[in-house]
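A note on notation is needed here, since sequence and fold are reported together in a single record. The reader may check this reading against the record printed directly beneath this paragraph.
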Amino acid sequence: MTITELHALFLAHPTISTDTRKIKKNGLFFALKGPNFNGNAFAQDALEKGAAYAIIDDPSYKTSDRFVVCKDVLTTLQQLATFHRQYSNARIISLTGSNGKTTTKELINVVLSKKYRTIATVGNLNNHIGVPLTLLSIKEDTEIAIVEMGANHKKEIAALSSIAQPDFGYITNFGKAHLEGFGGVEGVIQGKSELYDYLIGNHKHVFFNADDGIQKEKLNAYTKKIGFSTQDHQFYNIVFLGTDPYVSLEFEGKRANTQLVGKYNFTNCCAAILMGKYFSVPLDDIKSAIASYRPQNNRSQILDKDGFSIVLDAYNANPTSMKAALENFDSMPNHPKTIIIGDMFELGSTAKEEHQAIVDLAAKLHFDHIYLVGTNFFGTNTTLNKFNSFDDLKEHLLKNPLEKGNLLIKGSRGMALERVLDIL
């Protein structure tokens, strides 16, 4: 079956499943393989649960005409996604970066949806499987699709760009994330810049932060760029007004008070405002969209619980985002201030020095109580409270309850530090 024929089948059955526990009735099941499973073995089960057809790459599993055999299921899924992207009239905005991708994606979506029919990456389905699934969620009436791209190695963004073929792109920043896979900060810059490489090579538009020296230098000679700045008047100016504790800003005389904590979220808002302006969303609609957005899923959420005012930022962490979170929490006025921070993953050979640098920073800032959690933080040279595991922290806090007040919780996803909420 050709991709054209498979696409016709998809249009007749326009939903995709890759997990038999989440089968979408009358859709297509793609039998993906992983290190510990063979999707082909689940294809019959998918059909019995309501899938219309199963796409497999092992012909020995075919028992009826409802099985479509291809050479490789993942490659076929990606090719189908690209075909559908070309078939659609939707404009594609892709974004990547070390920090803030998901929040920025959601902000862009709430702004542009004020005027357009949009779709956006669900959650953080931003890899070699998630990007195709996002593209295949584009409907006939979709006008703009916002596609988040994640990577932890070089060449991944290049591959995702070739699949999505974006019309526009934006890089949030270059930070100390996935240093192990990228081979250092310079590798991060090269890897994330693969989105620039695609856009420039295909004469597409680039949105960018003109106050970011790296971005400005890389795009210096490129003409199809649209930038925002707090100071350079040749770009779209947006004014940072402060955080108390939420970010407030002003553009074209419109003041927007957001529900986002931390100055690091200012540029995320700026990107959404810039795109709203470019796509002619009315200024009042841009303002109301930015003001109404509330972060979810452990991303810079402010919660009030049992006498604590909590900044819950436990979705992920790397040295850049951890430093920003600590400095932001330090700038907040009220005391007492307690921080519980967990290990940062995927740092490779730099893990020891990066964790020590965060410990040294935390010790210099104005926190009343500091708790370090995880094997990396436990190995640092410090007299601060440190715990080898979450269970050790839990045991300590049950015997020695935290002082009520302001609390920052931040760590990599694998640390699952949101569990602290259950023991306050």
